[in-house]
Recover the amino acids of this structure.
């Protein structure tokens, strides 16, 4: 069961001028916590171009290149070093890096210059601006629902069915953590026990808001649950 982090819609609207174009790109069949694929990068850059063409009549001119140039000892052609172009080379950036569970969902994409992409201080979402997106369709079987409810001391809750590209609610994440813990109990080795659980755990270990989701929770969901 793959899930990943994306910036909230509010953060995107406040920080990504072309956010609607990126989130509106037709999704690939499968997303994951990974780098953007070449076809995704092409689609994101094309959406950026379309946004500028449709919404910005006079985009700011790129800063003129400063300094001298070099001459090829073979052809006598004028040459430049890569650093001269850092400010005008377009790169597709993960808003939340995939090393930190950032998804290659289009909602986690923006276009930066090569210089900006390696600079410190570029806006990133804070803990209150992170959402979790489901990358697989998952159906909670009746057997699993009975198993989780039995472990939850008689508290009966109907299990959800989750669609791919769906942004998870707190309750749905609680269910996935219970599901991951239910899978951990009989298997153990090779699985992760989630840090937070739902009803069966003591209240100190319950997930009460999205800020609490830990890397261990994500590992438990990612590695414990079968993918459909």
């Amino acid at each position: 069961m793959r899930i990943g982090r994306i910036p909230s819609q509010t953060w995107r609207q406040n920080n990504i001028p072309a956010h609607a174009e990126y989130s509106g790109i037709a999704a690939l069949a499968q997303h994951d916590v990974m780098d953007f694929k070449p076809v995704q990068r092409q689609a994101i850059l094309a959406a950026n171009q379309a946004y500028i063409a449709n919404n910005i009549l006079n985009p700011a001119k790129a800063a003129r290149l400063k300094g001298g140039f070099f001459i090829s000892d073979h052809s006598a052609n004028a040459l430049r070093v890569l650093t001269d172009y850092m400010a005008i080379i377009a790169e597709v950036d993960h808003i939340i890096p995939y090393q930190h569970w950032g998804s290659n969902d289009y909602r986690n994409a923006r276009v930066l210059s090569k210089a900006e992409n390696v600079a410190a201080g570029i806006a990133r979402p804070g803990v209150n601006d992170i959402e979790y997106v489901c990358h697989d369709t998952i159906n909670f079987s009746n057997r699993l629902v009975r198993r989780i409810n039995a472990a939850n001391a008689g508290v009966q809750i109907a299990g959800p069915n989750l669609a791919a590209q769906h942004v998870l609610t707190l309750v749905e994440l609680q269910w996935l953590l219970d599901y991951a813990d239910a899978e951990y109990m009989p298997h153990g080795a090779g699985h992760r026990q989630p840090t937070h659980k739902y009803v069966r755990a003591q209240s100190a270990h319950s997930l009460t808001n999205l800020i609490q989701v830990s890397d261990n929770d994500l590992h438990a969901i990612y590695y414990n649950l079968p993918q459909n």
